[in-house]
What we know:
alpha/beta, Rossmann fold, 5-stranded parallel sheet, 3-stranded antiparallel sheet, 53% helix, 16% strand
Amino acid sequence: MNLLIMGLPGAGKGTQAAKIVEEFGVIHISTGDMFRAAMANQTEMGKLAKSYIDKGDLVPDEVTNGIVKERLSQDDIKAKGFLLDGYPRTIDQAHALDATLEALGLKLDGVINIVVDPASLVERLSGRIINKKTGETFHKVFNPPAGDYDENDYYQREDDKPETVKRRLDVNIAQGQPIIDHYREAGIVIDINGNQEIETVFSDIEKVIEKLK
């Protein structure tokens, strides 16, 4: 079973990915983990990625694609299948992934797309507040401080402010839509309603995967 999971920041993609891996035993492949492993193992692509990172440069697509290909060619993938998380991030990377899978004799069985209304994501992501004295993190809506708290005792990080969150979501939507469209044309996208309790979302995902098996 070879899967890709997609969703906007705050949609619960990480939580659901962990549950899928635990329940179905597929290999979780996230971009960060792949880079760290490739650099630690000093693979050809890992060394190349490190040379860019050490200079503070962005790692070019061809190196990222190479690291993905290295990881997907390992024996555990054919034995257990994979769940790709955080890649592809652009339509060019999606085309590169198509070529990689074809070269390795693998195919993508499904793209799990966790759909959440962007307006509610702004509320989810911009509600985080931090206690100025203790550093404790709370959420204005989902996990507020106890009792009647004084807002002056709390602050928000710049990247948690609503306007910053909205900009980040807009960028993700613009980047992600062509990828979703690409896989939708292939008939392998399954939309999952992410505006539900975590367990309900996973139950919906579970049913979908069982059908794909």
